[in-house]
Each structure stands twice: as structure tokens, then as C-alpha cells.
């Protein structure tokens, strides 16, 4: 599988992927497979990655959606088509295995599955029965309890060729750890690691033995043509997963929609450090905003409330998020970022709102679902990163 080095996946319309790829694949039976075609540049630049489907059995384009990606208006001068891979059927049931290649249905990057996580999804858009529900933190907006259901996520590697071109992300996604020394605020990161929901996976296969470019690919995986998928876990991946499990584990996912803007939050406990004769507990949280409607909006402000078990309640206000004020449109409906928080207590809660602006200048507040900051992990040695 070959894609030009400067392939700008960030310009790919995420909504077109969802409607085009998924609906087109679902219309074909198992006798039909689909080749992924990308625009290859014969000169020095590259405009966009625009997938197109073609049935290998009949040789016909994959439905009307094909024109959405590859019309003459969208194909720049001097571009040619190059085969990228073969789509596989999307799994409606069960999970994807280690070594599964995929395209991310929202952000468009190429990746490969390392291993799954089974999380509890707390979706505030669903009215639950009273049992198996999660109570609100003190002072949070609303009063309803939320039922959690099991949902599959995957730890994945991102192809480094695609990282610079994912415009809907604040930075290349990474897993951050506390450093192994006395500085309680020092962090280090492993770039190109992500957590991907099952429904965001668009599986494909490739004949290349190294289809993903990432420094950990050949450390973690080996090519085995007798297997399906043909990439199996090395002992180094298994050892790394086991040793870093407490800091990698994804346990709770929180989701809420306000006026067609859906906010998803995933918190991760990072560990505890001692500073000035006190304990400091650290968490990372990943947030995705998705515009589920047709109206173009822009995030302008954030407003956080942070409650600590020590009894403190902190309010944080500011412009945008991580230095950005992202626009959410039908073409690029999602934005995702990660940040960190520390408390001088082993647990707490966070909740808040995002101030969103419409094109006519009016504003509305989008709720950030309340989530717990828990540190109920065993005290273990600091995480080992990916040293072997």
C-alpha cells in the first residue's frame, strides 16, 4: 500500500467518509471487495486524500457516492490514481484483532490496532432506568443519573506520514506519562498513539509487509502471512501493555449533546508524585467535539469547574481550547484535543461548558459531561514508556 508522503488527509471530508464509505460498503455483498484509491501527485505538492470505491468483482465504481470524492472539479491537474488497499467489511458485531489496518472514519488517518479496551460509556443523551447508573458530582449541571454500557475502544498506532495533515486535531495524538524523576510536573509523551472507538474503524488490508510508518511498528508487530490479519503481536508489545496497563487503561467514556454539538470526554489517571511535602495526583483527559448538524459554528470560550476531594472548587475560564478556536462544519465536523489536570487529593470531578458562536454572531453554551477523576490504581513503579 503506497500513499504519497505529503498526503493531506486533513482536508478529507469526514462527513463524506461516514456517508460515502460506510453506506457504499454496506450495499455490497461479501463477493465484492473494494479498492481504496487515492490521488497521487506527479509534481511536488498534494491537495487531498479522497477515497473512492471500486468493486473488484464487477469493476464498476461503488455507487453514486464515488462522484463525491473524485469529480473532475475535485481532481487537481497532474494527479493520478494509485491503489492504496482493499476495504474489508465493517464489523457490526465482535471486535477487531491485533494487526487490523484501518482508516479513521472521522480524522482520515491510516492506523493499525494494537489491542482493545472495554470501557463503560456514560451517554447522557440516553434516559436510563434507575439501576446501573452513575450519580452526578456535587454542583454539576442537571440531576439525572446516567447508565453505563460496555463499549469497545482500541489502542492504535497512527501512520506518521498522516500526522501533520490531520487538521481537526490540536496536535499529533500521544499518550503522556509522568517522568521518572523528582520534577512532579515533568511529562513525556509517546506520539502517534491514539484511542479509537469501534465505530470509527474502517478496516482494510494491504499486501505490504510494513504498511504503517511508526517507530514502534516493527518493535510491536511482525508480519505473518499465515494469519488474518497478517500482523501479530511481538513479545515486546505484550510486555509493554502489561507493564504500563494502569496508565494506558481506558475505563470510562462520557458523552453529551447540546444543540447538535456532541462532547465526548475520556479521562486517564497518570499517577502520583510528591511535591513540597504533599502528594500531587495527575490525570490526562481527551475531549472530542462533533457537530452533528448542518450549521457552521465556532468554539470561542471554555468554562471549567474542578472539584477536589480536599474540598476545593476551582473555576477556570479562557478563550478557546489549547490555543485554538476551532470551526465545526459539515465538511470538518470534529475537533479533538488532550489536556492535563492535577489535584492535591486522590479524586475529584470536572464539568463545565463550551461557549459556541453561530455565523450570525449569536452564542449558546454546550455542556461538558461531568466526569470523575479517580486514582484507585495500585501503587506501582513509574511507567516505563517504550524502553525495552
TrEMBL record:
GO molecular function annotations of the record: DNA binding
Keyword Transit peptide: yes
Keywords assigned: DNA damage, DNA repair, Mitochondrion, Nucleus, Phosphoprotein, Transit peptide
Gene Ontology CC terms: mitochondrial nucleoid; nucleus
Main location: mitochondrion
Pfam families, A to Z: DUF525, YccV-like
Location in or out of the cell: Mitochondrion matrix; Nucleus
GO annotation, biological process: DNA repair; error-free translesion synthesis
Keyword Nucleus: yes
Stretches assigned to the ApaG domain: 255-380
PROSITE patterns: APAG
Known partners and oligomeric status: Interacts with PCNA and POLD2. Interacts with SSBP1. Interacts with PRIMPOL; leading to enhance DNA polymerase activity of PRIMPOL. Interacts with POLH. Interacts with POLD1; leading to stimulate DNA polymerase activity of POLD1.
PANTHER family from the UniProt entry: F-BOX ONLY PROTEIN 3, POLYMERASE DELTA-INTERACTING PROTEIN 2
Function noted in UniProt: Involved in DNA damage tolerance by regulating translesion synthesis (TLS) of templates carrying DNA damage lesions such as 8oxoG and abasic sites. May act by stimulating activity of DNA polymerases involved in TLS, such as PRIMPOL and polymerase delta (POLD1).
Name this polypeptide is given: Polymerase delta-interacting protein 2
Organismal lineage: Eukaryota, Metazoa, Chordata, Craniata, Vertebrata
Amino acid at each position: 500500500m503506497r500513499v504519497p508522503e505529503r498526503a493531506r488527509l486533513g482536508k478529507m471530508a469526514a462527513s463524506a467518509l461516514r456517508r460515502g464509505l460506510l453506506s457504499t460498503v454496506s450495499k455490497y455483498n461479501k463477493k465484492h471487495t473494494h479498492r481504496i484509491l487515492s490521488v497521487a501527485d506527479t509534481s511536488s505538492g498534494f491537495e487531498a486524500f479522497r477515497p473512492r470505491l471500486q468493486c473488484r468483482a464487477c469493476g464498476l465504481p461503488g455507487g453514486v457516492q464515488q462522484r463525491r470524492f473524485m469529480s473532475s472539479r475535485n481532481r487537481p491537474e497532474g494527479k493520478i490514481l494509485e491503489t492504496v488497499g482493499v476495504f474489508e467489511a465493517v464489523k457490526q458485531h465482535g471486535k477487531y484483532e491485533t494487526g487490523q489496518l484501518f482508516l479513521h472514519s472521522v480524522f482520515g488517518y491510516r492506523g493499525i490496532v494494537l489491542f482493545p479496551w472495554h470501557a463503560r460509556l456514560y451517554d447522557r443523551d440516553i434516559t436510563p432506568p434507575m439501576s446501573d447508573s452513575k450519580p452526578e458530582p456535587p454542583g454539576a449541571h442537571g440531576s439525572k443519573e446516567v447508565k453505563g454500557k460496555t463499549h469497545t475502544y482500541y489502542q492504535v498506532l497512527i501512520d506518521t506520514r498522516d500526522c501533520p495533515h490531520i487538521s481537526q486535531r490540536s496536535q499529533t495524538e500521544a499518550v503522556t506519562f509522568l517522568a521518572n524523576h523528582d520534577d512532579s510536573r515533568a511529562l513525556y509523551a509517546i506520539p502517534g498513539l491514539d484511542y479509537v472507538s469501534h465505530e470509527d474503524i474502517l478496516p482494510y488490508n494491504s499486501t505490504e509487509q510494513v504498511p504503517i510508518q511508526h517507530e514502534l511498528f516493527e518493535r510491536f508487530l511482525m508480519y505473518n502471512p499465515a494469519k488474518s490479519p497478517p500482523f501479530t503481536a511481538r513479545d515486546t508489545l505484550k510486555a509493554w501493555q502489561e507493564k504500563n496497563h494502569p496508565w494506558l487503561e481506558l475505563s470510562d467514556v462520557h458523552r453529551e449533546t447540546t444543540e447538535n454539538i456532541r462532547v465526548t470526554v475520556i479521562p486517564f489517571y497518570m499517577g502520583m508524585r510528591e511535591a513540597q511535602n504533599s502528594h500531587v495526583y495527575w490525570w490526562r483527559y481527551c475531549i472530542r467535539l462533533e457537530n452533528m448538524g448542518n450549521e457552521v459554528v465556532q468554539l470561542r470560550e471554555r468554562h471549567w469547574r474542578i472539584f477536589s476531594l480536599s474540598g476545593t472548587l476551582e473555576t477556570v475560564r479562557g478563550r478557546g481550547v489549547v490555543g485554538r478556536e476551532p470551526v465545526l462544519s459539515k465538511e470538518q465536523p470534529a475537533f479533538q484535543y488532550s489536556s492535563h489536570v492535577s489535584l492535591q487529593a486522590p479524586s475529584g470531578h470536572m464539568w463545565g461548558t463550551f461557549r459556541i458562536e453561530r455565523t450570525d454572531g449569536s452564542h449558546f453554551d454546550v455542556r461538558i459531561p461531568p466526569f470523575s477523576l479517580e486514582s484507585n490504581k495500585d501503587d506501582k513503579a513509574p511507567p516505563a514508556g517504550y524502553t525495552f
